[in-house]
Write a structure and sequence with these properties.
The protein is an all-alpha fold. It contains ten helices and no strands. The chain has one domain.
């Protein structure tokens, strides 16, 4: 009886989920021990591109805000007396800028970030699985990532990019409609009561889905499964842990958007100051840590799911043996 109780205690301890802060703490340990390697993998091409991209994006956001202020104000958009106070690009130039930013986001940023993700997840996984304290760039280069796995990860990332772009478009539409139509409207109270909860619900769902999508990319990097199969595996392993994935995404979402809002508030996008370099540098650090976190989150979810499956099978076997013993006793 004592041995059975000990086995039950061990099973319960194994099936306990690692908390959000436990995962982040463990990822921070791996990251801090291999800081130089992760910096090398992440900062080189992505850092310089993101500095340029953030300056362009934040200037466009300011232009969009100015246009919405003009259109939602108590004055006409064609009122020339107020135009000098609020500089606004022409509608044609603004639309061209949006298209350019969209292409930059979909192609070079996606590819550069994907390369950093693959290298980071692969290296962090080797450190975690082998339980090594540190590794070197030379050791990493002797263990290359196979081209087939990179192609599979690219396919999965295209699915994730499509889904996340659609979800973000919905969120952006709600925010834009608020500034364009409701902010100075007599229906502001209606918006806060009706649209506000819809936005919060959509944001919460987006963060939850993002946890599943990010895990699917980790699965493609580590196991070679890609596309819809990787997404299905991710949904299976994360079943029952959606809340953890959502909270993990919330941490890094707040980190990234907080840095961007700070840059907009202080005007770091103007003149290419050191402020934008600091913002992008901190974002890159957070981005690397995020993928180490999701690598650990995947291993924890997979281990918990497989152990739960084994426990179910053992329970069935035990039940069958008990029924057989009862039959023989009778």
């Amino acid at each position: 009886m004592k041995g059975y109780d000990e086995m039950e205690d061990n099973r319960v301890m194994r099936n306990q989920k690692a908390g959000v802060f436990d995962i982040i703490k463990q990822a921070s340990t791996i990251f801090s021990k291999n800081f130089i390697i992760f910096i090398f993998l992440t900062f080189l091409p992505l850092f310089f591109f993101m500095a340029y991209y953030e300056i362009s994006l934040q200037r466009t956001l300011v232009d969009a805000s100015n246009i919405l202020k003009l259109r939602s104000g108590p004055y006409s958009y064609s009122d020339r007396s107020i135009l000098p106070a609020i500089p606004v690009k022409s509608t044609k130039d603004f639309h061209h800028e949006l298209v350019r930013l969209g292409l930059l986001y979909l192609v070079p940023r996606h590819l550069l970030e994907l390369c950093a993700i693959i290298a980071t997840v692969d290296l962090a996984s080797k450190i975690h699985v082998e339980e090594r304290v540190t590794t070197t760039l030379k050791e990493m280069m002797h263990r290359p990532i196979y081209g087939a796995r990179m192609r599979g990860t690219f396919i999965t990332s295209l699915y994730v990019l499509s889904f996340s772009t659609c979800a973000l478009s919905g969120l952006i539409f709600l925010v834009t409609s608020y500034f364009a139509f409701w902010r100075r409207s007599m229906f502001l109270g209606f918006f806060l009561v009706f649209y506000g909860p819809i936005f919060v619900a959509m944001l919460a769902k987006y963060l939850e889905w993002s946890g599943v999508w990010n895990m699917s990319i980790v699965i493609s990097v580590l196991e070679g499964t890609y596309g819809t199969e990787a997404l299905l595996h991710s949904a299976y392993f994360s079943r029952g842990s959606e809340r953890r994935g959502q909270l993990l995404m919330l941490v890094f979402f707040v980190w990234g958007q907080g840095l961007r809002m700070s840059s907009l508030y202080f005007g770091w996008y103007e003149g290419g100051s050191w402020g934008i370099a600091a913002q992008v540098g901190l974002w890159c650090l957070g981005n690397v840590l995020k993928w180490v976190v999701f690598m650990l989150y995947f291993y924890d979810c997979k281990t918990r799911t497989l152990e739960k499956k084994v426990d179910v099978e053992l329970g069935r076997v035990t039940k069958a043996v008990d029924v057989r013993k009862d039959t023989e006793t009778e």
